[in-house]
């Protein structure tokens, strides 16, 4: 059913729900699980980077690498074939581009009452995902 499952993952609680569901489906379907971390360079984080001397994006990238490595190890121990990737830019565009590039059959995102997914769906980002993803979208709740 699914050959390539993409999970947008950052290590936070709401994305853990996405990882759990994505990894479970990947195990059942014998699919590749793609874990995508995104360093968001748009919005308020872009302003903070532009005016500060602290490498916010570099720090975020390091945290994402650690979170992705732990998630990949845990999923791999469960017999899941895991591929990790970190991209930098607009979250919706990066998810859409990556999903097209791997011929994703399913994208899994986590949902939190006050998380990034809710903010995405409040604005044009959520609309972009719904309009341009080449596959189904699963919103995982904890």
Which key features would you list for this structure?
142 residues; alpha/beta; Rossmann fold; five-stranded parallel beta sheet
Helix content: 40-55%
- Main sheet: which strands, in order across? 3-2-1-4-5
Q: Which CATH class applies here? A: Alpha Beta
Report the count of strand segments. Answer: 5
- CATH architecture term: 3-Layer(aba) Sandwich
Name the shape in a single word: globular
State the end-to-end CA separation.
Answer: 24 Å
Number of helical stretches of at least 4 residues: 6
- Major beta-sheet overview: 5 strands, parallel
Structural class: alpha/beta
- Element pattern in H and E: EHEHHEHEHHE
Summed up, the domain count is 1
Contiguous low-pLDDT stretches (5 residues minimum) are: none
Strand content: 15-25%
Remind me, CATH topology? Rossmann fold
Cα radius of gyration in angstroms: 15 Å
Task: Please describe what this structure looks like.
This protein is about 50% helix and about 25% strand. It is an alpha/beta fold. The protein has one domain (about 5-140): Rossmann fold (3-Layer(aba) Sandwich). A five-stranded parallel β-sheet has the order 3-2-1-4-5, with helices on both faces. The longest helix is centred in the middle third of the chain and has 22 residues, at about 55-75. The radius of gyration is 15 Å and the shape is globular. The model has no long low-confidence stretch (mean pLDDT about 85).
